[in-house]
Write a structure and sequence with these properties.
Elements (H helix, E strand, L loop, with lengths): L7 E8 L6 H4 L12 H4 L2 H4 L22 E4 L11 H9 L3 E4 L4 H9 L3 E4 L2 H8 L10 E5 L4 E4 L4 E3 L4 H9 L3 H6 L2 H14 L1 H4 L4 H4 L1
Parallel strand pairs: 1-2, 2-3, 3-4
Antiparallel strand pairs: 1-5, 5-6, 6-7
């Protein structure tokens, strides 16, 4: 079981480019040891120059986005290779949520497996969330309500995001895939019992000749 997801208010960073792939999310150079700091490696080629120094213009190198826990991203976020470390890096940096118009399928699955909310937001709603408020000095804090399926900006802008009910409930409970499977234990046992009767040949022990 993972830690149950709780509604929270956090800082959001925006990376609107489409097709940010998993190699950009966590470059292979940060995966050379079993104890690599995935959070430090997040967007490593974008955050650091060739000497390992921070690029001052990159969003996560600026305040207050160093403390971001929400990421607004572009279409097809997480495309490319299937490395699960992309989800690990986001989580270890401190991100709890990624909102985008669409996600690559494997990244989407990996995010939920690691307790990271990956939710779909319509492009026009994402634009409304990331638009600079008229006063221009409002801190980029947003309230995420998983139960209601909404994100709210502090100026009152509220938009809905899409997530399957089963995934929403699993995050709220903190269920992993084993927990979700065990919820069907009675149905599994009933299916097995029925199979013993209807298909006994499937369950017959192998003879010595069949084993050899």
């Amino acid at each position: 079981m993972k830690t149950p997801f709780q509604n929270f208010t956090g800082i959001a960073a925006t990376m609107p480019a489409a097709n940010i792939n998993t190699d950009a999310i966590i470059p292979a150079s940060f995966l050379r040891t079993a104890h690599a700091d995935m959070g430090k490696g997040l967007f490593g080629l974008l955050r650091y120059d060739d000497e390992g120094k921070e690029r001052p213009d990159f969003v996560l190198n600026r305040e207050p986005f160093r403390r971001a826990s929400i990421l607004f991203a572009g279409e097809n976020f997480g495309c490319g290779s299937s490395r699960e470390a992309a989800a690990w890096a986001l989580k270890q940096f401190g991100f709890k949520c990624v909102f985008a118009p669409s996600f690559a399928d494997i990244f989407y699955e990996n995010a939920f497996r690691n307790g990271v909310l990956a939710a779909v937001v319509a492009p026009e709603d994402l634009e409304a969330l990331t638009a600079l408020p008229p006063e221009g000095n409002v801190q980029p804090f947003f309230e995420v309500d998983l139960s209601a399926g909404t994100i709210a900006r502090m100026d009152g802008t509220v938009v809905a995001f899409r997530i399957a009910a089963s995934r929403r409930d699993a995050l709220i409970r903190g269920d992993d895939e084993i927990d979700m499977t065990l919820k069907h234990a009675d149905d599994i046992a009933a299916f097995h019992a029925e199979g013993l009767i209807a298909r006994p040949w499937l369950h017959a022990p192998l003879t010595q000749k069949e084993r050899s």
